[in-house]
Amino acid sequence: MKRIITLIICVFSFFFSSSQETESLDLEFENARLDEVFSLIEENSDYKFFFLKDWITDTRITKSFQDVPLEDILSEILEETVLNYYILDDRIIITENNIVHKDFSFQTEEKEIAEQTPERVNEENIPYFLDENDKAGAITTHKIGKESDSRGNEYYTLTGRVLNNKDQSPLSNVAILVEGENKGTQTDIDGNYSLRLKAGPHILIARTLGNDIVRKRAVIYNDGTLDFSLSESLEQLSEVIIDSKSDRNVKEAFTGVSVIDVQRIKTMPLVLGERDLLKAATTLPGISKAGEGALGFNIRGGREDQNLILLDDGVIYNPNHFFGIFSAINPFTTGSVEIYKGNIPAKYGGRLSSVFDIRTKKGNTQQIAGEGSVGPVTGNLELEVPIVKDKSSLILGGRATYSDWILNTLDEEALNNSEASFYDAIANYSHQIDENNDYNITGYYSRDKFSITSDSLYAYNNMMFSGTFNHRFNNDLEGSINVSNSNYGFDIEYDSQFDNSFISSFEINESKLRIDLDHRLGRDHELNYGLATKLYNIQPGSVSPLGNESIVENNSLNREKGLESALFISDEFEISDKFLLNAGLRFSAFSALGPSTVNSYADDAPKSENSITGTEEFGNNEIVKTYSGLEYRFGARYSIFDDFSVKGGYNSTMQYIHTLSNNTLVSPTDIYKLSDTHIKPQRAQQFSLGFFKNFNDNMYELSVEGYYKLSDDIIDFETGAALFMNENIETEIIQGEGKSYGAEFLLRKNFGDLNGWLSYTYSRSLIKLDSEYPTQRVNNGEFFPSNFDKPHDVSVVMNYKLTQRFSFSANFIYQTGRPVTYPIGKYDFNNSQFVAYSDRNQYRIPDYYRLDLSFNAEGNHKIEKLAHSFWSISIYNVLGRNNPYSVFFVTDNGEVKAYQSSIFAMPIPTITYNFKF
């Protein structure tokens, strides 16, 4: 107490004294604490230090000074601390954070002084900021940075991390709000946040569903850090399945963004008890599938190949198992899923409709943890292993099906030769080098094998590697470098009783490099810019004999190569407190590379083998054809009220790679084709407008959004096109126009005993295939419905919590039947009978609807347990609706017969056991 009183007297006395020039000293410190440095200065000079020992950290100093003024010595040794100094005669007064001000104008009004020096705060006036809701110990005060003599900055950057108090794992999607100010932000996947705040005191609130609310007072002197540690709140376990990141839907400038909360989909009843991230996504507006069991997604009227699926920035070409019945993305190792279907950020490109940005969660750096499940056909296990405590962790995840074993135990002759199996594995290593550097490495592999008939075996696999290094240059500039490689391929083994057995295969490989920089320019601008490049390498198809007796000859199509590159920049510009603009540009270019043989075709005839007029040869890596274009990304938000905003956007995109399939639905044996001399890149532009409103402190969320999208050079095919192993594939392809439009409605209750959402989408997807040649003209060159045009789509997802441990969940899905082409008559020609079909996609299969129910039971919530368990008993398709997967027609003895195939035509009961430790 005596030293504190002395320090206060000395600080007060400077008003009546003046500082003097200091002497120069010869000093040398080696691995010395700061208080030891002070003592050494006192021994070598006439000065005396006044400070509190609590301010001294264990930081060690090694310095050497020769004839250096004392002020310069003090400035250098205190540069990396939050301490300041003031020299008064022979006394050196050390202060924490703030400085001792020399100049005061006592004629200035009190209000003006407060405005000019908002950072001038010390512990004696802190009680001024307490309010009636603050209790002892409820709010802690943290001084951030240290005050400077410079008056240049009014705003400073506060950064930090939000961690789980139990295991110190990072928490994403946490809202960091500034009390009494219209300001806030969200933590990213690593739990990091950043805020621009005025100098002076602020009360920060960290809140998220499932955790207690934490309030802290931050007194801002300069740039600095403030971390939060949140404890779990048992009252909010499993209340919300999908969350929109608090008020992000109202505050951000982007339209058409959906966020899946991975931790809260466990109560959602899904087929065969498999927790499925991508199936959960299809219950949100604007996201649908062509049919039950179909691969791929149709986003706002787009084709399945127009979606970019990213896992830790590495491309996954087929994120499905077993014809889309299961997702190939492990839910236990996934941290977040963000889906961009309106405004796509400028850093993403290469697809027209959407980006699925899937991120692996950060592992536990404190202790071994894990999660798993056992279902009727699959088992899943995830482990988190600390490698370096508080710095690095390894996540291992594996999932497999034992359906082969189940098929072999069934007494059904038709299934004796059947095969259906899959597995996937993922490994992720993350390492925090220091506060400015970290890196993340992910490896992924999946494989499927299935046999539909006794003579054919299908197999396909994904393989992906991704590595990202992140570096923070300073508080305003951060950057990352990502390298990735993705590989997808399939094999078909045909084991015939005759001599034509064969094995055929396809493979695509993609290598990518992306450099990404985030730069804050003052309080109003946040720039994101960088470059990306990727190299495609495709084996379009090969056939080889299967067995020694096969007469099939080896055949392999020429490989395809292409280089796609882009430069991008975007700026999020806060024009005012109400008006936020995000504007981006992306310049992309693509070059088809040799070796290649390019056909030339007659100008007055459609492309066919008969109209080839010559060929041109290109050598290895020689440029065959180049395309380029400027893509625009604009989004704007205007806040009518704090919880009500209107947003609009414009988005243009280009796509240089295409999926080739003449099946009604996408299949795992579809092939990929690069743009070249004859096949142009697909292009699209989308306009969107939406209204977003939250109620009752973000408990309820309401949004209505409309869009209109135009597309050019959309891929389609001539009737009866042969695609696989076709050397002249351009002769089968037609490129046309597309347009889609619609409105999306979402009403969501985020928490409470009853929670869930209602989504409704009205959408139309139309295509126009017109040409001067009749063989390339469809439906007289008029717009007609695409294969995935489904005007009405309704999803209701509800969860009701009976107690802390028991809950009921339900899904109801309704969709308009997709278009189909029906036979409408038959006719005789040359003594033969033929079937006459309607215009393409003139009719529709029956509408689709399904009801699912589940009962969920959690184990007791005792903290000291080996593992926490969770049981789910569900019934998929409770009504037993025989929803058609497809409708096809067969001519039998001159009679046309219609057949309908279904995936799940009866109720499917499931019981699944989940555990977490």
TrEMBL record:
Coiled-coil positions: none
The cellular location(s) given in this protein's UniProt record come to: Cell outer membrane
What Gene3D superfamilies does this protein map onto? 3.55.50.30, Carboxypeptidase-like, regulatory domain (2.60.40.1120), TonB-dependent receptor, beta-barrel domain (2.40.170.20), TonB-dependent receptor, plug domain (2.170.130.10)
Q: Which Gene Ontology terms of cellular component type are present? A: cell outer membrane
Q: Which residues form the TonB-dependent receptor plug domain?
A: 254-351
- What are the residue boundaries of the TonB-dependent receptor-like beta-barrel domain, all occurrences included? 416-856
A molecular function (GO) held by this record is: siderophore uptake transmembrane transporter activity
Q: How does the record classify its membrane topology? A: Multi-pass membrane protein
**Keywords on this record?**
Cell outer membrane, Membrane, Receptor, Signal, TonB box, Transmembrane, Transmembrane beta strand, Transport
GO BP annotations listed: siderophore transmembrane transport
Where is it predominantly found? membrane
Q: Would you say which domain of life the source belongs to?
A: Bacteria
Family the UniProt entry places it in:
Belongs to the TonB-dependent receptor family.
Identify this protein by name. TonB-dependent receptor
Taxonomic lineage per UniProt?
Bacteria, Pseudomonadati, Bacteroidota, Flavobacteriia, Flavobacteriales
